[in-house]
Write a structure and sequence with these properties.
Blueprint (H helix, E strand, L loop, with lengths): L2 E2 L6 E4 L4 H10 L4 E4 L3 H9 L11 H10 L3 E4 L4 E3 L3 E2 H11 L1 E5 L11 E6 L3 E6 L6 H9 L5 H7 L5 H5 L10 E4 H7 L9 H15 L4 E5 L4 E3 L18 H13 L15 H11 L6 H16 L7
Parallel strand pairs: 1-6, 2-3, 7-11
Antiparallel strand pairs: 4-10, 5-12, 7-10, 8-9, 9-11
């Protein structure tokens, strides 16, 4: 609806979606290509049965392999992102090649710390910037922002060497998704990565990459955010403090089954998230003890608060 420019391919990297949902996607969008992780079938079975025991390994091999097979520049999205404005992919790629940008963000949740730096140039579609970081030396970064043993973090904070604001600035050179990546840079972010989520390792790799290439690489972001993300659901079943009564797997299954039956429209509420009233109605209709509407509303509030606490603008 919004992407223009080159003839591009949409690839879904799946890590556990039950087959009937994938079949529905292919039925609606036959041009989409789907690649599955090595553990996708086992995870899909756990999701189907809403098992309380889940495989927590993330499919790093699938993601890096897909990146290596992709074009020199590619757009990476999470499954809960959507476009809200016109985006010319040709123009972005041309600009990134010309200006040696290795990451151009389309999304930062209204948080200026995540795109913090000195503007180098501004055009009608993007801003190129030089990140303003406390240090670009990997060893110092690791000592100040990663090591958190023996009360080191408290001592550094006492002398204002460590602050949350300084730590967040490093996201100016890193993001999980919601950006156009240069292939080599994206693959470098995942070097020496385990099979569990570890953003700290990726940030460390980003600092190391920047240190090695110094002024040969740049970063950028679109003038305005052209993506939004949802806070209706989550891919994990981790308890969120007082909202621990909500079972996310049962909740997601409820939404998925409604979508499969044609009772949940993807564009409802667009360009904003799904309307709370529609979700609440759906939960009342299902009447499951694991997905009480009041528990879901509390869970969503606490989910948003995590991002508000670090300066994100969450409506």
């Amino acid at each position: 609806m919004h992407c223009t420019g080159a003839v591009y391919t949409i690839k879904i990297l799946d890590d556990g979606t039950p087959q009937k949902y994938l079949d529905k996607i292919v039925e609606q969008h036959p041009e989409v290509l789907i690649s599955r992780s090595a553990l996708a079938s086992q995870k899909a079975q756990q999701i189907t049965t809403t098992s309380s025991t889940v495989i927590k390994e993330i499919p790093v091999e699938l993601w890096v392999s897909a990146a290596k097979d992709a074009s020199d520049y590619f757009l990476m999205l999470e499954d809960d992102f959507w476009f809200t404005a016109a985006t010319n992919l040709d123009e972005l790629e041309t600009a990134m090649r010309r200006e040696k940008m290795i990451c151009l963000k389309l999304f930062w949740l209204g948080n200026p710390m995540l795109i913090h730096g000195k503007p180098l140039q501004k055009t009608d579609s993007y801003i190129q910037y030089r990140p303003a970081l406390f240090t670009k030396k990997p060893i110092l970064y690791r000592l100040i922002f990663r090591v958190n043993r023996y009360k080191i973090r408290k001592v550094l904070a006492l002398f204002k060497l460590y602050t949350l604001e300084k730590a967040l600035r490093y996201y100016s050179i890193y993001t999980v998704a919601g950006a156009v990546f240069q292939k080599d840079y994206f693959c470098a972010l995942w070097e020496d990565h385990s099979v569990t989520v570890d953003e700290g390792n990726q940030l460390q790799n980003a600092v190391s990459y920047l240190y090695k290439h110094q002024d040969d690489v740049h970063f950028g972001h679109t003038n305005e955010e052209v993506l939004q993300t949802g806070f209706t659901s989550s891919a994990t079943n981790n308890p969120k403090s007082t909202a621990a009564h909500l079972d996310m797997f049962h909740f997601n299954k409820c939404l998925n089954e409604a979508w499969l039956a044609g009772n949940l429209q993807a564009m409802e509420g667009y360009p904003n998230d799904f309307p709370s009233e529609s979700i609440t109605t759906l939960l009342f209709e299902n009447a499951l003890p694991e997905t009480q509407p009041e528990h879901w509303r509390l869970w969503m509030h606490e989910f948003k608060q995590q991002y508000r606490a670090i300066g994100c603008n969450i409506n």
